[in-house]
Specification:
- The chain has two helices and no strands.
- It is about 55% helix and about 0% strand.
- It has helices spanning about 1-20, 40-60.
- The termini are far apart.
- It is elongated, with a radius of gyration of 33 Å.
- By secondary structure, the protein is mainly alpha-helical.
Length: about 60
């Protein structure tokens, strides 16, 4: 039983090592550019609306 397990693991190792494709990693010639154009306008407007609502609720006699 032990011989069979050793033989099976040897075969698996040989198959795994034989199927490997060499991989080359090379840095790009130009720097990587990450464009982070994020629109935060909506978040600012929501905060201002909440602040205005809270202000009006606390001060009923403003208008």
């Amino acid at each position: 039983m032990r011989k069979q397990a050793l033989l099976l693991s040897g075969i698996c190792a040989a198959l795994a090592a034989g199927g490997c494709i060499p991989v080359q990693i090379q840095a790009p010639d130009e720097p990587i550019e990450i464009n982070l154009n994020v629109n935060i306008r909506q978040e600012v407007i929501v905060r201002l609306e909440r602040d205005a609502e809270e202000l009006l609720e606390r001060n009923d006699d403003l208008f």
